[in-house]
Amino acid sequence: MIALDFDGTLAPLVDDPEDSRMLPEARSALEALTRLDGVSIALVSGRAIESLARVASPLQEWFLVGSHGIEILSPGEVVHYETPWLVPQGLQRGFEGVVSHHPGTRLEVKPFGLALHTRGVEPSLAREAEKEAAAVCDEWEGDLVIRSGHGILECSVTEADKGEGLLALVERTGASATLFAGDDLTDEDGFAVLGNRDFSLRVGPGESRARFRIADAAEMAQILWRVFELRSARSS
Fold first, then answer.
1. What is the C-alpha separation between 69 and 144, in angstroms, rounded?
2. Burial 136-171, CB ≥16 within 10 A → b, else e
3. I want to staple 173 with a disulfide (CB 3.0 to 4.6 A). Which of 40, 42, 112, 130 is the partner?
4. How confident is the model at residue 235, as a pLDDT?
5. What percent of the chain has pLDDT over 70?
6. Residue 10 near residue 22, CB atoms below 8 Å
């Protein structure tokens, strides 16, 4: 199984999440890998499924994991998938207030949580906005999960992580080995569940438990093509 984060791994990081698109070289490699026997492809993202499907335009054959492992879809299920929306309106209004007080920040409303995007915002303003958003979550009644990453702070009403999503994918696919790549703190949960037969790749800088490291999404695309070449040679 080849399971990949999207933003920062297959698509270069951009200020506006809606502008994110997979590198053409990476997409071509994934399409080629999809056609090989015995290979399963999965996108594993913190994005909600509806957002992931919109920016990634996944093939029907791909598995999709959204909302950090909360949403898990097998091939073809995205066509009839109805997104549940569980975010309390009061919590959303709190985040909307943070955005209104910090020009340049953006709010992403997800089915199970909210994300404050600060990428591209002046660093001190970004830190102030993220601190205020975290305070909104802390003051809310009930258990909420707070995550931070590259220019983003998220608050979720349901707890799950990419490690749980990966384990569910392994169970569904029966994969004998997994390649998982990601670029952010939330991907560390995925690296943590991999075994000796698996292959973990950290994209970009930062401490990581991944076994290997590459520079960026462009290098990820090159690796996918190399995997295709090796797998094709083995099959022939």
1. 16
2. bbeeeeeebbebebebbbbbbbbebbbbbbbeebbe
3. 40
4. 75
5. 100
6. yes
Tokens of 113: 């949580």
SS3 assignment for 25-74: HHHHHHHHHHCCCCCCEEEECCCCHHHHHHHHCCCCCCEEEEHHHCEEEC
User: Does 62 share its domain with 128?
Assistant: no
Q: Are residues 113 and 205 in the same domain?
A: no
Q: Count how many domains the chain has.
A: 2
How far apart (Å, rounded) are the C-alpha atoms in residues 233 and 227? 10
Using CA atoms, how far residue 11 sits from 15, 219, 220, in Å, is 12, 11, 10
The reply to whether 227 and 174 lie within a common domain is yes
**How far is residue 53's CA from residue 50's CA, in Å, rounded to a whole number?**
5
* Ranges 33-37, 42-46, 83-87: which has the least confidence: 83-87
Provide the residue range defining the domain that includes 100: 89-156
Between the CA of residue 84 and those of 111, 115, 153, 169, 184, what are the distances in Å? 6, 17, 21, 21, 26
Residues with Cβ within 8 Å of 212's Cβ and at least 6 positions away in sequence, in order, are 199, 200, 201, 202
Residue ending a domain, choose from 134, 156, 178: 156
Residue 55: both structure tokens together: 């920016």
Number of H helices, E strands in the chain: 7, 11
Instruction: Tell whether 11 and 79 lie within a shared domain.
Output: yes
Residues 9 and 30 in one domain: yes
Backbone angles phi, psi at 119, to 5 degrees: -65, 130
